[in-house]
Design a protein that fits this description.
Elements (H helix, E strand, L loop, with lengths): L9 E5 L9 H13 L4 E5 L29 H16 L3 E5 L6 H4 L1 H15 L4 E4 L24 H7 L3 H14 L1 H19 L6 E2 L8 H4 L9 E3 L10 H11 L7 E3 L13 H13 L4 E3 L22 H5 L3 H15 L5 E7 L2 E9 L2 E6 L12 E4 L4 E3 L8 E5 L2
Parallel strand pairs: 1-2, 1-8, 2-3, 3-4, 4-5, 6-7, 7-8
Antiparallel strand pairs: 9-10, 10-11, 11-14, 12-13, 12-14
Amino acid sequence: MTHSELSGLLADTWWFGLTGRLSDADFKMLAARRAAQGFSAIQLVVGVPPEVGPANENAKSPVGFPWTLDGQLNEAYLQFARDRILYLNTLGLTAVVYGAWGHQIAWLGQEMMSTWWRKIIETLDDLEVIYCLCGESNLWIGQEEMLLPDKTTSELPLRDRFSRLPPGLRDTVHRLWKRLHRRQREARRQAWGFVLEEMARHTDKPIIVHPMADETGYDAVPNPDRLAVNTAQTGHDARARNRLWQLPLSLQQHGRAYKGYINLEPWYEGIGDQFWTSDQLYAYWVSMLAGATGHCYGAQGIWNVGDGEFLAHWGKQTFAQAVALDTPRLIGLSHQQFLQHHDPASGVFYQTRGKELITIGRKHGEKLVQFFPDVARADHVPVGDIWLPLNGAFADTLPSQGPVVIFRKS
């Protein structure tokens, strides 16, 4: 397994894309739109999505639940998943298949989770797929039962109180919780490592894992050699602004991204009424120029197929509102330019002022790709073709402010 199949990946995130929340008509409409916008992959959960219990109606597909707590696996569901993924493939879209969410291994156990993954592989392995062991592998250590059997995270008062803590205090509580549950955390890591080993015996497709924000994919399992690339999620917090580019640089410097790196969950557009177009384009350009293998986009309202009420504690933006966002088109256009101009042999450079990133770029000889989050803050801008990410177009003259990318071919 190499990272070549993930190189240049541009993915959208539809965690509830195989549930009855997303109709066939909307599934096909959104797939066609993302393909036309230049996306190459869709992240889907083949199983129980995050934020809901296994018996919650929002986890149910049109042909029933994926599985039940007593170990009944739904073959019709797997065929339904195959049909939808096959449709994505016909449009040139690869499916990034998540088999579960991290805490769900406590519900099924590692043996039954391995069986579920073998069934997924048997059903999908001839299609264009990338497998993701699980989402948020170390989520809810010691609290795995909270959603059973049919709750949603909107019903969890502890979660709501925790989210309202000041960021610094929230971090302290999280560190103390990790320390208190160190053994359970290691047991979870070993359990998912067992499943990963079983998966690797049955497929040659790339396998990755989606970790929590305080670790990387290589930390999440005891056998990271089975993973195609290292991964991360930087999360939905404004404080992750520098982590978006500092993390991939640090991983490369320490030899932990030698096969590649992807941030599977940066800021979702509209989550908590934040992180709109300029933030999304910032996340794209700094991640890719810092050495990411590919990029994942997500939008509140798309990932949960939102109606303004379901999981609305993350934001009330609806599916219809999210579909109308122009950002994915602009990201697709930026991605097209990056792939055209990026030289794999180029070296990264950057400039900061205090904690602010002034510019980041890659250069090989005279060939250059350089991003300025706000050109008004730059000390010097090199001569080259001027790309305006917010316009999705080249310009003849340098603007006085706003994000700019400079391309120089030689």
